[in-house]
Each structure stands twice: as C-alpha cells, then as structure tokens.
Amino acid sequence: MNAPAGTLPAGTLPAVELASLRRRLACMLYESLPSFGVGAVFWFAPLVALHGLGINVSGSIEWLLLFSVMGAYFVFVWYKLGQSLAMQTWRLQLVDARTGRPPSLQQCLIRYVMAWPSLLLIVSGVGILWAAFVDRERQFLHDRAAGTCVIFDPPRSTPR
C-alpha cells in the first residue's frame, strides 16, 4: 500500500519528494495527541466552565466551537509554519502543489474545511482507498481540493 513517493509536477522545485502515504497516515495518528491538548484547553475547558456557571451549550454549538478551535490551530500552524507539531516530528511540510512554495491562507482554509469530510472518508476506509489506489500521486482529497501537497523534508546536513 505504500507505493514510492512521487515528485511535484514539472515546473516546481526540483527533486522535491512527496511524502509517502504511510508517513502521512502515521503523522495523522500522532496528530491526535497535540490536537487532544488543544481541544482540552480551548474547547472542553470552556464548556466545563460554562456548565459550572449554569450555562448549557447545545450540541450543534459544541461542534461549531470544536470546528472553530481546531480550525484556528491548524490554519495558523499551516499558514505560519507550513507544518504542525506532528508534521515537524515526521519531517513533513505543507506546500502549494503548483509552486512548491508555502501555502496561501486561502489554501489553508480550504484544506481545513475539506479535511473534515475527507477524514470522515478515511474513518470509513474510503479516504485511504482513494489515496492508496485511485489518486496517482497518493494525495488525499482535501489536498487536491486546496491545491496543496505534503512533501518529505529530510533533515539538513550540518557543516563540520
């Protein structure tokens, strides 16, 4: 299932390697740890505090708050750093698929919004099957929609 990683289309940075599907899936699993922390502090704690004050928030508002909190986190780190904490650990970098440059704010927003249905498809297996067997470059639907891709960013050698 982990086919060799491809390269960016012609006219982009030379010798840039797309991250393998296996590496991106492992990173997504690892991403749950910092996401849990962000959610606990900026989503769950405020809900508990509001409940303590006697204010009950409806389920749809809770989901909207979660969507907003996670969106603020991911869009910020993708736009400002090009990678989340988990992506840094796995040496992955988010770039514009056409130019190989950092993604625009609009691309980060589209990627985040489209990641929700794409990830739900991954949970059902369809998203993984799409990336593994349908997409020629093993890209997820949210990256295709946003015009982004995740590249493998090997460590830089340090001079002696």
TrEMBL record:
The principal location of this protein is membrane
List locations, semicolon-separated. Cell membrane
**Protein name in the entry:** RDD family protein
Which Pfam family, an example, fits this chain? RDD
Q: Which UniProt keywords apply?
A: Cell membrane, Membrane, Transmembrane, Transmembrane helix
Q: How does it sit in the membrane?
A: Multi-pass membrane protein
Is Membrane a UniProt keyword of this protein? yes
Task: Write down the PANTHER family for this protein, in alphabetical order.
Answer: PROLINE-RICH ANTIGEN HOMOLOG-RELATED, RDD DOMAIN-CONTAINING PROTEIN
RDD domain ranges (all copies):
18-147
**Record's keyword annotation contains Kinase:** no
Which residue ranges traverse the bilayer? 33-55, 61-81, 109-133
Q: Look up and give the organism this protein is from.
A: Uliginosibacterium sediminicola
